[in-house]
Structure formats: structure tokens, C-alpha cells
Amino acid sequence: MSELRFEALNHVELANVNASFGAGTHVVVGSERDGSGTLLALAAGLLPPAAGRVLLDGVAPWSHARTRGRIASLCATESLLPARDVARSLGLALRARGDARSALSVLDRAGIAHFAAQRVSALAPREARAIALSLALSHPQPALLALHEPLSTAGILEQDFVLKTLSERSAAGAIVLCTANRLEDAARLGGNASALERGLWLGSGQARPPLGTFTLRVHTPEPRRLAARLSEAPDVSGVEWTGTRELLVHGSELEHLARSVVANARAEAIRITALKPDAPALEALAAARAGLAQAYYERARGDGPRDDARSRS
Amino acid sequence: MNGVRIGWALARERLRGASAPLVLFLSCAAVFAIGALERQSDAQSAPDDALSGAVFGLALPLLAYLLSERVCEGQRLERSVDAIARYGTDRRAALLGVLLASAVCTAFASALLTIAALLGAHAPHSASLLGDLRASVGIALIAGAVYALYFGAASLLGKRGGGRKWALIIDFVLGAGGSALAVPWPRGHVRNLLGGVPVVDLSQSSAWLALLAIGIACVALSVLRTAK
Fold first, then answer.
1. Higher-confidence position of A234 and A93
2. Are B94 and B71 in contact (CB under 8 A)?
3. A152 and A135 share a domain?
4. The pLDDT of residue A283
5. Do B9 and A62 touch (CB under 8 A)?
6. Are both A295 and A178 inside the same structural domain?
7. Any chain B CB within 8 A of the CB of A55?
8. How far is B33 from chain A (nearest CA, A)?
9. A70, A237, B191, B198: which has the highest count of C-beta atoms within 10 A?
10. pTM value?
């Protein structure tokens, strides 16, 4: 089973991204300005990270040709390889990949065979992206599909074809890592959602919060902007975005946490439509109870710090 | 081996088009005219003057520079193969293919420039033309290839391969002398092969070896400074 890891990754917009992805579909919501394009280029081994590491199955794709051969990618801006026409350009790319298929068969499968005889220099940027996407989706056995805005080629490539191929690859054990600027596209792509906001990584809402913390569910029309603001607030230990309009905000004290959320939302003029505490996890309750028992025990023995015990109780 | 072939194919596609042959044709016409003018002023020294001045002193370094710029698409050498490396091609192998294509094309252009200059500098049906051609075309081939590799290695420097420009200037300035400062640059050794002032009194056979060493060092540097 393949695994993609970002370890303390810093590069241009990206600030200390730590994340890992297993097989399946993962969608990162964010615009190019947030660093989504850079993240995918790094994942595909097209750029060397300025700091930190990008590892696919423990190997850095930037410096390992065979690993790059297992990656199919679509960048924010695509320019096809230089050639007289699209078929020759794709033919060169297929040769570089070690793929014996013809360019025409790849284009035909994606329903865009009419581009085959077109001059590469005459292609519009969206057409070049659509052709690059058809090439990426034609990869026979990818370990990773790193695709920037794969649904933005609608109108040239059939959306059903893209979604069906991605779901097949995902089911076959590949990591499908896509970015989407629009929530609708993220919802269509499905899978685990996470986000980038001005280079800050907002992990998936399915991640389990650490023990002994409180969680607030905050509903807002601007979840990413609020998440970015809260991630810098001192009372907030963590922010997760569920991929919808809901944020999960973690902190050690419920009252301070709620005050901090409201104050930060007010400072950024962000509307909050709902704010409710989340029921603590059973592990957290058990840990709190164990901590309380430990404090009573230490106080009874007379060797524990009394103030600490009192504050815990 | 496949990576070298892919790199070669990439360089070939980048050189495709009318502009490269047109520039070569115009350069050949210019050196032919310079050779003919030199013959008018002094027929005896015209071939030497045309070769050491117009061809190897000016046209060849400039053409090699322009060709290197085109083959690298105005980028750093190792980044110029990113377009194919993303599909799993080894960057080093692809880079060797690009350098090979660049060296072959520059050597060919250099030979054509030499032939054009000698045709202009010699009187028609001159008895010494064939002998001059035989001696000079070999020098042109190796000088062209070494200049291509030299500019290729220089393209490893600078954000967008700006080292090429500096390599051109340094070759013009430092290579023009005969001191130890001229040893690492191709210009002085090519001049030595043409019968000009040697660099640190090296013999002509040593100049061949020096050019060979510069070429090999440039290839090794290019490969070693590139990630797989």
C-alpha cells in the first residue's frame, strides 16, 4: 500500500505542512495563492522542497526517477512537450514514461482524439491542461495521481470520465490527491477533505483530537478564513475543517475557547451561524477521570502538589 | 540509454524551426564575406585572419551560446529536462542526451562556418584550399563540441541559466590572453590549434588534450550537479 508524506514542508507559500496520505481519494481545498499548486508540484517531484521532505513510499520523488515514473500529475499551468503536433508531443511523453501505447489511443480513450493533429503552439491553456490530464489518467499503474483542479477542464474532457477513472485508480490502491478551489468540485471528487489557507495546512476533520481537549463546532460561511485566523490564536490548540461550513476548534478550556472564536471572528468580520460544544470523546473522559483519581491519591499520600490537584478537581 | 535518446529527441524538437538554419545561413554568409574582404587586403594571411578572428573568435562562441540558450529553453541546464523527467526519465541521462545534441549541432555549425570562411578567403581553385579545409574542419568540430559543453555546464549557474552569459564574457576576456588564467577556457586552446599564441606555452597536441579535458570536465560537472 502506497503512502505519501509531507514532513515539515516549507516552500514558497507553504508553511510547515505535515500530512500523510494513504490509498484513496484526498481533496485539498484551496486556491493557487494558498499553495495548492505548489503542494501538488512538490508531491509529483517537479520541484525540490526548500525545507522539509516529500516522500512517496519513503523515497523523495524529486531525486528518484523510478518513483517519478509511478506518479501521474497535472499542474496548474501545463505546457506540452515541444513537437510539431499534439500526437507527437504525447508520443514523446509516453516514450519518456516507458509506455508503448500510441498517443492516439490515449486521446481517443479520453474522447479528445480531434486534438491529435493540432499544433502544440496553437493550444489554449485549458486545452493543454485537458490533454495533460488525459495523459495523467492514462497511466497504467500509478502509485500517486497528483492533480491540480482536475474538474476545471469540464467542457473539453467529460466530467464523468474523469471521476470514473479517478475512482477506478483509487479503488486499485493508488493515492489520488486532488486540489479544488471550489467546494462543489471538492464534493464531487469525494474522499477525505483537507484545506490550505494562505499556506497553512488544515487537516481533515476526521482526525481525532488529542486527549483532554475540548472541541467547539463552529458553523460559518467562511470556514477557511476563520480557520487561518484561529490557527494563530493562543487559546486554540488546533483547528480542523470538515470540508463543509463547519470547523472543529480544539482548546484546553471551553469558555476561553468560545471567547477566542467569537473575538477572532469579530476581528475578521466573519459571521458565525452556530457555535456548539462537542461531546468529549470517551477516551478524554476516561483520561480526565484517571487524572482526578491520581490527584486525590497523591493528595491523600501528601506527596503531590496540592494546588495542581485542586485545579484539576 | 532510453533517457539519453529522450533527451536527444527533446533537444531536437527544441531546435526545430526555421530560425536556427536561418541564423546559421546568415552567419556563414557573413564569414564568407569577411574571408573575401580579408583576401582583398592580404591574400596570404586571409585564411588565418578569417578563421581566428571572425569564425573562432566571434561567430562560433556566439552561435554556441545561442544554441545552448535555445536547447535549454532559456532555463538552467538541469531544469531544462524537467519536462520529461516528470514522466520518470532519469534527469542525468536526459541531460546527456541534450548535451550530445547540442554538441553535435554546434560542431556541425562550426564546420560549416569554417568551410564558408575558407571558401571566401581562398581564391577559387586555390591549391592550398583543400589542405586548409582538411586541417581546419577537425579543429572546428572539436571546438564546436567543446563550446557547446562549456555553455551547457555554465547553464548550471544562475536562476535561469544566466551563467551562460558570464561564460561567454569570461571566455572573451580571460581566454584572449596566454597566461595561466586562460587555461580553463576553450578560446586560448582553439587559438593555439590555429597557429596563434599558445596558452602557457602548451604544444598543439597538448591543446587538443586541454580541449578534450575541458569538454569532459563540463560533462562530468553537469551530470554530477543534477539530481536523478
1. A93
2. no
3. yes
4. 52
5. no
6. no
7. no
8. 35
9. B191
10. 0.76
